[in-house]
Amino acid sequence: xxxxxxxxxxxxxxxxxxxxxxxxxxxxxxxxxxxxxxxxxxxxxxxxxxxxxxxxxxxxxxxxxxxxxxxxxxxxxxxxxxxxxxxxxxxxxxxxxxxxxxxxxxxxxxxxxxxxxxxxxxxxxxxxxxxxxxxxxxxxxxxxxxxxxxxxxxxxxxxxxxxxxxxxxxxxxxxxxxxxxxxxxxxxxxxxxxxxxxxxxxxxxxxxxxxxxxxxxxxxxxxxxxxxxxxxxxxxxxxxxxxxxxxxxxxxxxxxxxxxxxxxxxxxxxxxxxxxxxxxxxxxxxxxxxxxxxxxxxxxxxxxxxxxxxxxxxxxxxxxxxxxxxxxxxxxxxxxxxxxxxxxx
Length: 345
Ligand SMILES: C[S@@+](CC[C@H](N)C(=O)[O-])C[C@H]1O[C@@H](n2cnc3c(N)ncnc32)[C@H](O)[C@@H]1O
Ligand code: SF4
Ligand code: SF4
Known about the structure:
Blueprint: H1 6-22, E1 27-31, H2 59-67, E2 71-75, H3 85-92, E3 100-105, H4 112-121, E4 125-129, H5 136-141, H6 146-158, E5 165-171, H7 179-189, E6 192-197, H8 213-228, H9 240-252, E7 264-267, E8 273-274, H10 288-294, H11 307-312, H12 316-324, H13 330-335
Parallel strand pairs: 1-2, 1-7, 2-3, 3-4, 4-5, 5-6
Antiparallel strand pairs: 7-8
Bound molecules: S-adenosylmethionine and iron/sulfur cluster (2 copies).
């Protein structure tokens, strides 16, 4: 995975440190629409929704001025359903290069032109959901032809060499045996991979959680193999500590210590603040401090280990170390494909 320059990373670390001390969020996820092109089996979104009261592109500037996150996710629903998504990115990105901006999308609507326009507007990382390394992806996402589309456009855009595309694979009971096969696919397509973990909280369905000792044993074998495949290029984007915690999450059926509402939060498509995408207590923009007091300080929910959470559960020294250690490792730097930097999501 392409790393940022030291200067850009120091900008992120500087703002992140300030936010940490002042209890502003490090990461904000803007869910720019509730509508979606897919109807995935593991998700509570799906199909068209009422988009008439969505924030407009210029509104995002106001949210950035107040919240000042150093990392932003643009997500949904399916963010590429917004025909003004490039304009939204322009309003989020500042001249300083901050925030580090990640587009989280299923890529059903991605085109070569849109990818380039989004890059030019300020997207630093494209997170592309992939649940299976073959046509089972279409069945799981209930979108015929999606895998075929990905299997042509991802390698084609990967070959441009920007090294900013990351396959985003949510581990479920259905794709557990495919964890390494999806890493193979990332290699074949010339892109990176990041794993996250299924949470039953979205849909209430426990079937896609790992419920048996056999499933947990398979998870451990698959993740052991993933660990053995790391090299200096950061193509397996999760930090080792994150994959370790993913094992614990599935084994224990939950993981405490969530910092939702404090270190990260969600802005809904209509502009309300939510602690996360699965907690629906909502606050106006100016009430982020109240959300910290009322929700974050007493939150005991342990029901997910999604990427945004896994990144921010860490204490500050650990987070800092995982982001800067590449600069001080001669071996890592020499093996890296590009200059070093942050964002092990
Ligand atoms: C909610 S989607 C929104 C962006 C876009 N539609 C996509 O699928 O990438 C963001 C990520 O959440 C993941 N996701 C959906 N349901 C989930 C669940 N129940 N637990 C954990 N992750 C989930 C998806 O696989 C996807 O990678
Ligand atoms: S995971 Fe993404 S693509 Fe699938 S239904 Fe949810 S929002 Fe839509
Ligand atoms: S563990 Fe945290 S991020 Fe996950 S659902 Fe609960 S409150 Fe939300």
